Amino acid sequence: MECKKLNIWTASSFFLFLTYPIFLVYPIVTVLKQALIHEGQFSLANFVTFFSKAYYSETLVNSFKVSITATITSLVVGTLLAYLFSMYDFKGKKFLQILIIIASMSAPFVGAYS
């Protein structure tokens, strides 16, 4: 059986695979620890405080309303556009497809700038 050399891409992939949990799991565990430990003991007091204040519960409900509305709107518009692009040929079809792709690609850049 031949032993393959470890190239730079394999080594860097392995390194990223090992360091990824540090940047993903550690922050999540830290936040959960802060939320679930109150005065040195396991407690749900922080959640009770959060949900008992009207300001926070209203904010949470409003966030869900906006999320659900945006999701339904995106589904309807996306379904209609998919049907339109697949069934009909019209002038400017390629241009509109490029605009949709650009809008999809620009979202991470806008988030990175903000």
UniProtKB/TrEMBL annotation:
PROSITE patterns according to UniProt: ABC_TM1
Q: Which residues form the ABC transmembrane type-1 domain?
A: 60-114
One GO cellular component assignment for this chain's record is:
plasma membrane
Q: Which GO terms describe its biological process?
A: transmembrane transport
How does this chain sit within the bilayer? Multi-pass membrane protein
Q: Where in or outside the cell?
A: Cell membrane
InterPro entries from the UniProt entry = MetI-like, MetI-like_sf
Where are its TM segments located? 6-29, 68-88, 95-113
Record keywords, A-Z = Cell membrane, Membrane, Transmembrane, Transmembrane helix, Transport
Similarity remark:
Belongs to the binding-protein-dependent transport system permease family. CysTW subfamily.
Q: What is this protein called?
A: Iron ABC transporter membrane-spanning permease
Organism equals Streptococcus pneumoniae
Q: What is the lineage of its organism?
A: Bacteria, Bacillati, Bacillota, Bacilli, Lactobacillales
